[in-house]
Write a structure and sequence with these properties.
- This protein has no helices and 18 strands.
- It has 198 residues and is mostly beta strands.
- A hairpin with a 5-residue loop joins β15 and β16.
- The relative contact order is 0.13.
Length: 198
């Protein structure tokens, strides 16, 4: 597995490490920095296949833009492609999930667009990433966002709506286009620290 994090002990850099499992034991490789600047919270990682992953994060040294990078794993070693911005505005509450080995969805709070809940599809070619247009899934302040792919063309995103209720919606991907179903409340009370998984 891969774990990505903000390393406060190393100048707040975005860092990842490979974990190798043997029975119930875990051993780790070296740490590999994917962002040499202040990587400000909201870090999310998803495996694309057994040797590649995508990590999305808020880049404090680049205007807090939402950014993603592809990691390639060889044994315990990680190498990275270039960084690609998916939202040229202050970006919070980032969550990413692979749709397949060459596509992923990233959901986030878009501070540059009234803090709406928004998602984009990323398409991978080698270590390069291109993005679809942005598609809003919640036209209100959206926090505690978590996304999980259901299959290569569908995902679920769960979040705290402006009503403070825990809410989820299904996204359907067709090429670079995202459409959404209705919103469905799963908890009619103040709901925080949400995590979703297919």
């Amino acid at each position: 597995f891969v774990v990505a994090y903000r390393d406060v002990g190393n100048n707040l850099r975005g860092t990842a490490v490979i974990g190798t499992v043997s029975g119930n034991s875990i051993s780790y490789g070296y740490e590999y920095v994917f962002n040499h600047g202040n990587t400000y919270a909201s870090i999310s990682v998803s495996a694309l296949n057994s040797t590649h992953f995508v990590v999305a994060y808020r880049d404090a040294d680049n205007n807090f833009y939402g950014t993603a990078v592809i990691g390639t794993v060889s044994g315990d070693t990680i190498s990275y492609g270039d960084e690609y911005v998916f939202n040229y505005g202050s970006t919070y509450e980032i969550s990413v999930s692979a749709l397949n080995s060459t596509h992923f969805v990233v959901a986030y709070q878009d501070n540059g667009n009234s803090n709406y809940g928004t998602a984009v599809v990323g398409t991978i070619s080698g270590n390069s990433i291109s993005y679809s247009d942005e598609y809003v899934f919640n036209y209100a302040i959206t926090t505690y966002i978590s996304v999980s792919a259901l299959n290569s063309t569908h995902f679920v995103v769960a979040y705290k709506d402006s009503s403070s209720c825990g809410t989820a919606v299904i996204g359907t991907v067709s090429g670079d286009t995202i459409s959404y179903g209705d919103e469905y409340v799963f908890n009619y009370a103040i709901t925080t620290y949400i995590s979703v998984s297919a």
